[in-house]
Amino acid sequence: MKTAVVVFPGSNCEHDVVYALETLGGSADLVWHRDTDLSGYDSVVLPGGFAHGDYLRTGAIARFSPVMAEVNRLAASGAPVLGICNGFQILCEAGLLPGVLLQNRDLKFICKPIHLRVESTNSILTRAAQVGDVLEIPLNSYEGNFTAAPSELASLESAGRVPLRYSDASGNIDATNNPNGSTNNIAAVSNGNVAGIMPHPERAIELILGSADGRILLESFLESKVSSHV
Amino acid sequence: MADTTTVTVNIRRRPSISDPQGATVARALRDLGHDVSDVRIDKTIELQVPPGDADSIRAAVTEMCEKLLANPVMEDFEIVINP
Fold first, then answer.
1. Disulfide-capable partner of A88 in A79, A83, A199, A214 (CB 3.0 to 4.6 Å)?
2. Superfamily assignment of B5-81 in CATH?
3. Which of B17, B21, B24 sits opposite A147 (nearest CB)?
4. Can you say whether residue A52 is alpha, beta or left, with left for phi > 0 and alpha for psi between -120 and 50 degrees?
5. Cβ-nearest to B73 among A61, A100, A103
6. ipTM value of the model?
């Protein structure tokens, strides 16, 4: 599988994503947001950062970057499409994922390792994991507070499209271990072959940097095949 | 006739969407002794567009709002065409 890692003006996690995917046996290239041909790729990552300065709303302008026509085409063709942090915000703005990411409940930029509990393995992020696994992954965001219309939330929950929630180290999920106010402690959302995650798995692939728990998530992504629809 | 028409777009979070910034400002105002039950902080965008009839300006700006300026998941918008 060859992955296009999209670079918007203001992206800043693209090199980490390429490094992580290649460390895990994948093959990845950086592609500029003005590129209009991703025909050589069968998967996409939208990395973290501050695309277009986060002006107007996070992801609002990136959504109309020229490359997004190709991202939409690949998503429609069943190719794995993953948004991490700002990439998650872009996928929400683009309508490829439901909902929106608001400012953190306490209006603080959160940059620290947090725990996530695997809630479903039916996603391109968690197919190789086990329900109940607890992962330690860095969170690094100001707008990480996921919310959606009540009907959309209900359909996400009833369809098991919440692969990861914020938890404590033992996997308990409640308001006391919700770092940013995200509805139902939602840390990731899945929509068939598309997924978004707020914390950064690419920053947790080597123990020397504190945690290798992000591996299972990116390995899941690399194992996802085009049109497998998980 | 003016070269351009000024259009003001007020973008407001839906009442059901929390506004952490507004809540923080409300707390600060109460700390200062003011009787304030709620604060919502919204966005105002001012556009200069070619003059024309109000209906077509409104249609064009509505499209701008629906496509880019507002996020229908969380925001409502109001268009004011200045005379």
1. A83
2. Phosphoribosylformylglycinamidine synthase subunit PurS (3.30.1280.10)
3. B17
4. left
5. A100
6. 0.74
